Each structure stands twice: as structure tokens, then as C-alpha cells.
């Protein structure tokens, strides 16, 4: 079974960083929907902002109430798949792999928008590395400080989403100011 660890301050901060990043993305969906932020070629489409909002808010809630830790050992097919594959320490790590796959699909599908602002993408990429280091902790034989890496990843995602949104809003304000 999965050892249930106590909720720590790092879990709380990670959840808050992810929630703030998700709310920034949701705010951008609203601004784009209302036509208050114009979209240039390198700006995120509204659907990407929406996908990021959903994903980051889901990750925040998961971190806060430990959804994957609960589902992993308690959902039969996940437990059976874990026993069959044997590639992770705990069944809930398979759920984290599914999160990684979904995030990877979104990243690949919209890669040109992420990479359009290289400095911001570097921060976003650091978040992926930190989150990846936390996920690698599920490999048998590794014992990393999972919560710290998750928290650093959440902070990087928050900074990146804030920066992406700031750039889009600033460019729109400059455009409307120069009309």
C-alpha cells in the first residue's frame, strides 16, 4: 500500500502556486473571451489557456486533498496494472504518469506558442524538470525529496504563467494605446 504521508507546508505552498497559476490562466480565458486582450501570432490561443487552467487547478486540488494517493491503491485496475507492470513503487505513481502524458500531449500540441517566448519557456521548462524529478521518485531504488521538487516546479509554473499573461496583456495595452 501507499504510505500516507502527513500534509506538509511544502504541499500547501505547491498547491497554492498551482492554484494561482491556474487562476491566472482562467483570467486570461475570460479576458480573451471578452475581447479585452487581443491575440498576436505568438500568444496562447484561448483553448490553451483553458487547458492550462483546468490542468493546473486540478493539480492544485489533487495536491491539496491527495486524490491520486487515494485512487492508486483503491481502484482495482490501477492496482492490477501496477502489479503487472512493476515499474513504479506505488500504484498512485501510475496516475502521475497519466498526468505527465496529458501535460506532454498539450505541450507538444501547442509547442510553438510555448517556445515563442524563449525566456519564459526556460522557466516553464525548469518547472517540468522539477516536477519530473518529483515523479522519478516513484522509480524503485530512488529516494528524492519529492515535496520540495514539486514545490519548486509549482513555483516555476506560477512564474511562467504570470509572465506569459503579463506579456500578452502588456502587448495588448500597447496596441490599444497606439490606436
Explain what the structure shows.
It is built from eight helices and no strands. It is mostly helical. Helix 1 (9-33) runs antiparallel to helix 2 (46-65), helix 3 crosses helix 5 and helix 7 (118-136) packs antiparallel against helix 8.
List keywords for this structure.
mainly alpha
Q: What is the tally of beta strands?
A: 0
User: Could you spell the SSE succession in H and E letters?
Assistant: HHHHHHHH
- By secondary-structure content and strand pairing, the structural class works out as mainly alpha
Shape summary: elongated
pLDDT under 50 segments (min length 5)? none
Count of helices? 8
Beta-strand portion reads under 5%
Instruction: Calculate the terminal CA-CA distance, rounded to whole Å.
Output: 62 Å
Largest sheet geometry: none
Mean pLDDT: 86
Gyration radius, rounded: 18 Å
**What share of residues is helical?**
over 70%
Short description:
By secondary structure, the protein is mostly helical. The protein is 77% helix and 0% strand.
List the helices and strands and how they pair.
Layout: H1 9-33, H2 46-65, H3 67-74, H4 76-85, H5 92-109, H6 111-115, H7 118-136, H8 146-177
